[in-house]
Specification:
There is one protein chain. The chain is mainly α. It has a domain of about 45 residues. About 65% of the residues lie in helices and about 0% in strands. The termini are far apart. The model has no long low-confidence stretch (mean pLDDT about 80).
């Protein structure tokens, strides 16, 4: 019986930071990064959680004489969860708006083609419309 041994890959802090920043700034998803970098998605999720905790620890004010505001970890986690929901909702809405814009552009192109066909049928020549210049505020 031979056992397969797993090879542990170590990642440089810079590489971890690059991966986490891409995920935190919503440039890409954990799944996409995992496939690109050949890293387990659960490992990226762990790194993300560690990064969020490190950020929170960094902003704890430990200077003497300062008024301390009690913030529990549960409150912070709840705020993070709420922020993620807002971000997810915004991303979904943006996707829907992009799809609607694409559909509208296709419809405009269809209508323009119809007008050109109608003008050709009638023996008319269409003049190209000039758009007014946009004024800068």
């Amino acid at each position: 019986m031979s056992e397969k041994s797993r090879i542990r890959t170590t990642y440089a802090p810079e590489e971890k930071a690059e991966i986490i920043m891409a995920v935190l700034t919503r440039k890409t998803t954990i799944q996409k990064v995992a496939k690109e970098k050949n890293v387990a998605p659960t490992l990226i999720s762990l790194w993300k959680k560690q990064a969020e905790e490190a950020i929170l620890e960094r902003f704890v004010d430990s200077r003497p004489g300062r008024r301390k505001v009690e913030v529990s970890a549960d409150d912070v986690k709840e705020e993070l969860r709420a922020a993620r929901i807002v971000a997810r909702t915004a991303k979904t809405r943006a996707t829907r708006l992009e799809a609607a814009l694409k559909t509208a552009k296709a419809r405009v192109a269809e209508l323009e083609q119809g007008v050109r066909n109608m003008a050709a049928t009638m023996g008319c020549k269409l003049a190209k419309a000039k758009r007014p210049l946009r004024q800068k505020d």
